[in-house]
């Protein structure tokens, strides 16, 4: 083992010891019994439909059941409050990133949240959620609190089962045969997995617009996230059943963050610094009020195995399937090494949006991706040089940085059909 490797392993062991110690407290952190009385921002306590209604938007909640029984809440804003024309069709599906949920598209408020902006541009907007989030923590057979099998998933199952189920439901409800797709980070990753691993679903998409898509995460520069994702492949086999759900809403970390970050001063200092430990820094881009709100919904939960999967693909430098070990790989895949996902099967039009200051999905990873996909319409670099990964959801400047490009391509692949 190299000296550097020994240092990393020592950090992983220390991280694991702290993590297990914290779990030993059974995530007990009763901050208050009535959070609404403690000056929490209203939006941080709101679910998607409540958040939208806070600003005069009509939002619907729909229930989608996947082939393997996961129950997902999907939300729809059929027409934005500021839409003054005909509704553009086909419908648009907006998918969140890792440890986020549909709420992340509202957290920046009506002037900057992409769910508000897209619906206000007269698109029939649907906002999805994947298994393991607080909107995807149900199953027709499995109990997430008692059945370890519930948490036996990665972004592979999200792409192969969750996204196709949402697409089928949307098309059935709207009567259309195609839709447009906007995915951020993991939302891009699971789209490419869907195209690789299913038959016919990629063809149901007219255009896919990818914001910092996390396919091959070889060039990630966030030390904290590298440490976190490389920690899970090492220790995930040692977890007890109740430890297989990680970073859940209502868990120790999220409740602490929500409690402390509701304070305006702490939100603008300590909580802003916490975001920069994960991502890079973009001065003034994310408003303090947005930070106060977003930690009411973030982190939103996933499985330990999903984080391990990110760690595996990062260390391997390949966009490949899950590594179970040589013997099980041979049994499942017919080879010792996991096979690569077939990016050539994403043959529909794709737009890639990226930035140089993104240390979670590095620009080199996106430019590599542009050489692997057969039908890239444009690889667009955000003009704001300090633009970060989280800016795609939370920046006050989305309306002038990324939304015009999103709108350009949605409009190109849409038509007006009704008032």
From TrEMBL:
One Pfam family of this protein, by short name?
Abhydro_lipase
Give an example GO biological process.
lipid catabolic process
Show the active-site residues: 185 (nucleophile), 358 (charge relay system), 389 (charge relay system)
UniProt keyword annotations, A-Z: Glycoprotein, Hydrolase, Lipid degradation, Lipid metabolism, Signal
Whether Glycoprotein counts among this entry's keywords is: yes
Q: Does the keyword Transcription apply?
A: no
**Segments crossing the lipid bilayer:** none
**Domain (Partial AB-hydrolase lipase) ranges:** 49-106
Residues spanning the signal sequence:
1-24
The family database entries (Gene3D superfamilies) matched by this protein are listed as: alpha/beta hydrolase (3.40.50.1820)
Give an example GO molecular function.
hydrolase activity, acting on ester bonds
Could you say which protein family the record assigns here?
Belongs to the AB hydrolase superfamily. Lipase family.
| Protein's UniProt name | Lipase
Species in which this protein is naturally found: Parnassius mnemosyne
């Amino acid at each position: 083992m190299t000296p550097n490797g020994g240092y990393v392993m020592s950090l992983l062991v220390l991280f694991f010891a702290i993590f297990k110690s914290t779990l030993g407290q059974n995530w007990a952190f009763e901050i208050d019994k009535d959070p609404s009385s403690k000056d929490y921002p209203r939006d941080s306590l709101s679910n998607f439909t409540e958040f939208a209604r806070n600003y005069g938007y009509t939002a619907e909640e729909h229930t989608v059941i996947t082939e393997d029984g996961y129950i997902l809440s999907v939300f729809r804003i059929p027409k934005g409050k500021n839409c003054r024309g005909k509704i553009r069709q086909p419908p648009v599906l907006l998918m969140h990133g890792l440890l986020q949920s549909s709420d992340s598209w509202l957290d920046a408020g009506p002037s900057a949240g992409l769910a508000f902006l897209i619906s206000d541009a007269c698109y029939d907007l649907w906002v999805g959620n994947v298994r393991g989030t607080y909107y995807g923590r149900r199953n027709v057979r499995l109990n997430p609190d008692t059945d370890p099998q519930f948490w036996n998933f990665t972004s592979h199952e999200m792409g192969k089962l969750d996204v196709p189920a949402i697409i089928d439901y949307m098309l059935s409800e709207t009567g259309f045969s195609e839709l447009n797709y906007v995915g951020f980070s993991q939302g891009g990753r699971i789209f490419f997995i869907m195209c690789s691993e299913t038959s016919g679903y990629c063809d149901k998409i007219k255009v896919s617009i990818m914001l910092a898509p996390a396919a091959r995460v070889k060039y990630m520069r966030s030390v904290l996230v590298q440490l976190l994702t490389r920690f899970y492949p090492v220790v995930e086999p040692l977890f007890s059943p109740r430890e297989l759900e990680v970073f859940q809403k209502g868990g120790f970390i999220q409740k602490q963050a929500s409690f402390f970050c509701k304070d305006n001063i702490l939100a603008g200092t300590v909580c802003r610094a916490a975001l920069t430990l994960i991502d890079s820094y973009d001065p003034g881009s994310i408003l303090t009020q947005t930070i106060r709100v977003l930690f009411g919904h973030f982190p939103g939960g996933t499985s330990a195995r999903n984080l391990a999967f990110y760690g595996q693909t990062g260390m391997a430098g390949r966009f490949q399937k899950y590594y179970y070990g040589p013997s099980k790989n041979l049994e499942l895949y017919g080879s010792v090494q996991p096979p690569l996902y077939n990016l050539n099967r994403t043959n529909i039009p794709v737009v890639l949006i990226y930035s140089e200051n993104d240390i979670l999905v590095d620009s080199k990873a996106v430019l590599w991706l542009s050489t692997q996909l057969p039908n890239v319409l444009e690889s667009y670099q955000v003009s704001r040089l300090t633009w970060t990964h989280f800016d795609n959801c939370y920046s006050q400047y989305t309306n002038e940085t990324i939304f015009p490009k999103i709108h350009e391509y949605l409009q190109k692949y849409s038509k007006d059909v009704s008032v």
